């Protein structure tokens, strides 16, 4: 199977749908999701948006006002500071509208390529490839790339995959990585992509 065929299989077998499309909520939720589990992100974002329903309201808040609301997400003090700064900048520099280009998104405080690309794909429907730890790790494990940094992985994958797969791949790779291609004890025996993988298998469970 080619890289593109395997990628399509991952998207087909491990679909991930994004219910929220509002650019600001997607941006904030992605910030909250850093280094925490999905369920923690959901709890924190739900509580936050129940109190602050717009970017203008968050721009007027103090970071400490957010602490208890987003505590479940972990690193809540740093995330609160970042979210308020982002909200203020969007209001002051972009008239309350989240920018829809990579360059402008990257100018927002603490927004990296992964976060920016998720917003571009989910909220604006633009071809964008978000490379997080799952995408970076699994792409190397499958033998698609040999890279050391997520930024390098993004560049190489864009050469290998058509733009239509860039957006969906991130969410599907996350699901694949959590359910099957785990970091330390991958479930190789159960993997539907076993024969297309470069990772060495030993018995029922792969060894990192």
What report would you give on this structure?
This protein has 208 residues and is mainly α. The protein has eleven helices and no strands. 57% of the residues lie in helices and 0% in strands. The protein has helices spanning 3-13, 23-32, 38-51, 55-59, 63-70, 76-94, 102-105, 113-122, 133-142, 150-160, 163-179. It has two domains: 3-15 and 130-196, Endonuclease Iii, domain 2 (Orthogonal Bundle), CATH 1.10.1670; 23-122, Hypothetical protein, domain 2 (Endonuclease III, domain 1, Orthogonal Bundle), CATH 1.10.340. The radius of gyration is 18 Å and the shape is globular. Helix 9 packs across helix 10 (150-160). The two termini are 23 Å apart. The model is unreliable at 203-208 (pLDDT under 50).
Concise overview:
With 208 residues, the protein is mainly alpha-helical.
- Give the strand tally: 0
Could you give me the name of the CATH homologous superfamily of the largest domain?
Hypothetical protein, domain 2
Uncertain segments: 203-208
When the domains are counted, the total is 2
Order of helices and strands: HHHHHHHHHHH
What's the total helix number? 11
Radius of gyration based on Cα positions: 18 Å
User: Architecture of the largest domain, CATH level 2?
Assistant: Orthogonal Bundle
Distance between the termini: 23 Å
Instruction: Identify the overall geometry.
Output: globular
User: What name does CATH use for the topology of the largest domain?
Assistant: Endonuclease III, domain 1
The helix content is 55-70%
Per CATH, the class of the largest domain reads Mainly Alpha
| Average of pLDDT | 92
